[in-house]
Amino acid sequence: MQNGVPTVCMPDPVTGKCVKPFHDPNDKNFGGPHGANNAVADINGGKMDGFIAQEERGRAVSCKNVNDPACSQTQGEPDVMGWHDAREIPNYWAYAQNFVLQDKMFEPNASWSLPSHLFMVSAWSANCKNQNPSSCVNALQNPNPLLGGANRPLPPGKADYAWIDLTYLLYKNNVSWAYYVAEGTQPDCEDDQMFCTPKPQKAGTPDIWNPLPWFVDVHQDHQMGNILTLDHFYQAAKNGTLPAVSWIDPNGKTSEHPPALVSAGQTYVTGLINAIMQGPDWDSTAIFLAGDDWGGFYDHVVPPTVDQNGYGLRVPGLVISPYAKQGYIDHQTLSFDAYLKFIEDDFLGGQRLDPKTDGRPDPRPDVRENVSILGDLTSDFDFNQAPRPPMLLSTSPKPGPASIPGP
Questions:
Q1: Among candidate residues 188, 180, 182, the one with its CA nearest the CA of residue 237
Q2: Which pLDDT does position 271 carry in this prediction?
Q3: Are 360 and 136 in contact (CB under 8 A)?
Q4: Sign for the pseudo-dihedral over CA of 194, 127, 251, 297
Q5: pTM for this model (two decimals)
Q6: At 289, which helix (H) or strand (E)?
Q7: Is 390 left (phi over 0), alpha (psi -120 to 50) or beta?
Q8: Which residues of the chain have pLDDT under 70?
Q9: Per-residue pLDDT, 61
Q10: Could you say which of 121, 162, 303, 360 has the lowest number of CB atoms within 10 Å?
């Protein structure tokens, strides 16, 4: 960077040119392939120079279908090098300026959406031969085949994922939880391609962004009723009856996952945050906001090596709370494992998803919450300060100012 302007450029194998990061005013982005092999190619041994080549290869595959939206879009430059600021995302900018921005939040795994969501609830992605946790083996790219295909009900008594997830510990310790699903279409593809035919997403049906119905322990603990449609979240926020721990899963339209509109995602997220801020639970709430994977977009920061699974590339990370430090930038090394660690420390007395102690031993590579490089989210809060008032924002905000000089 020079005077806030990027000077680095990435090779474009098609044009032979070197492309610099650029401000992208488009509301629709396409990104690039974002599976395990793509992450390796993007990072390229720490050179961080494979993004454009991966995008162009992905477009070549997807454009074999003449109806693919990528084929009809004319772009002078691959959009994996594009970035947004307050001109497109003024509300995210406002949250970052007034609450906490985490500038070293890494995807916990170097792969796509399904493994990422498995890490978010269980700190692992695996294949299991049967419903015994000891039968599971590490699977970064392709966890268990989707029984009968995604979005089809599981056969009675069947579930793919036998290893432990966080809801098991919450249930055993009488800690309330819910996983709220915005029904519609699922945001990502089963085969990890850039584009696919949208498939239905429903609260009670397992899919890529709603993996808990595939977990054996969720069925055995009779906790399927905690996986709810999004209207239940809005009602609980209004009534002050939100559970201790909540996950909220968007649908394809609101996810900001390419090719969803950035503006639609910002409107959706702002509505969720406003609902919490306007409800009785605001004074005791911590909101953690993150993207699930890097979407094939460029980043210059080399992910730390933790184990054979990651970390993956950086994703956006925000903390919004009445006790969040104001205008604070958290420079700790973080991943979604930090969310699990925070919940375990806050509600479970520091108990971990540890095969030696959790009652359902599995052969996971390590206890991710205890990795020495992982930061602690309590650093983002000042619990001695008076609770900060809500900061309600418009769900249809006007564009903000440019963050750096230039077009």
A1: 180
A2: 96
A3: no
A4: negative
A5: 0.91
A6: strand 287-290
A7: beta
A8: 1-5, 61-77, 145-159, 184-204, 405-407
A9: 65
A10: 360
- Structure tokens that stand for 234 in this block: 């809005």
Whether the bond between 92 and the residue before it is cis, its omega within 30 degrees of 0, is: no
| Rounded distance between C-alpha atoms, residue 366 and residue 330, angstroms | 25
d(CA 24, CA 6): 14
Residues ≥6 apart with Cβ < 8 Å to 96:
318
Long-range contacts at 135-139 (CB < 8 A, ≥ 24 apart):
135/162, 136/161, 136/162, 136/163, 136/362, 136/363, 136/364, 137/363, 138/308, 138/309, 138/364, 138/365, 139/115
Q: What CA–CA distance (Å, rounded) separates 42 from 244?
A: 38
Cα separation, 288 vs 335, in Å, equals 12
> Residue 230 corresponds to which tokens in the numbers above?
């999004």
Note the pLDDT of residue 201.
67
Tens digit of each residue's pLDDT (9 = 90 or more) over 235-252: 999 999 999 999 999 988
- The neighbour count for residue 347, using CB atoms within 10 Å, is 18
CA distance 115 to 308: 13
Class in CATH terms, 90-380: alpha beta
DSSP letter string, 140-151: SS--S--TTSTT
CB 310 within 8 A of CB 108: yes
Q: What's residue 3's pLDDT?
A: 65
**358 φ, ψ (degrees, to nearest 5):** -90, -5
Tokens standing for residue 186: 């699922």
Residues contacting residue 242 through CB under 8 Å, at least 6 positions apart: 178, 233, 236, 276, 279, 281, 285
